[in-house]
């Protein structure tokens, strides 16, 4: 029996026992992995994937492909030429099993590309931490019964932060501000008028 699997943006027709070179996966040599994006098993074609099917493989090694030379030269431009080499990072696999059904219950680790694994690792650290910090900063203000000062036209997050630092956390407090004498933030007269309307 054969199957057609998809990994690294490419499709491979495989049978049990085949040795395959695919784009680098985030696995170590000797691990057993499972490909869940199966386009075809035997004569069964999926739309777009075959439900419950999988291809299991054992990782032989992490290797590099053959060296490719990229040479660029622009004619009649004496100093315009560039040589660049590249060796693609690959994972060497041996296909062990082709499952037509029951892929979810197999308990084998799903194959994940190395670039996707890096994105998930960096994305979790870079976006989750600032969001958590922003939520922590917003929580005390909301708990104290503060109003959302950015609801006033012309007051952005930076101006709202300066107003809060100056002790103005509600529409009523902003409505009571004297525009001429208040020095902490340059308060506009229309902000005070809008705050009076919102404080009612």
Automatic annotation (TrEMBL):
GO terms for biological process: translation. Coiled coil: none annotated. The keyword NADP does not apply. One of its GO terms (cellular component) is ribonucleoprotein complex. InterPro entries: bL21-like (IPR028909), bL21-like_sf (IPR036164), DNA_repair_Rad51/TF_NusA_a-hlx (IPR010995), Ribosomal_bL21 (IPR001787). SUPFAM superfamilies: L21p-like (SSF141091), Rad51 N-terminal domain-like (SSF47794). One of its GO terms (molecular function) is rRNA binding. The keyword DNA-binding does not apply. Keywords: Ribonucleoprotein, Ribosomal protein, RNA-binding, rRNA-binding. It holds the Pfam family Ribosomal_L21p. Part of the 50S ribosomal subunit. Contacts protein L20. Belongs to the bacterial ribosomal protein bL21 family. This protein binds to 23S rRNA in the presence of protein L20. This is Large ribosomal subunit protein bL21. It comes from Pacificibacter marinus. The lineage of its organism: Bacteria, Pseudomonadati, Pseudomonadota, Alphaproteobacteria, Rhodobacterales. The gene is rplU.
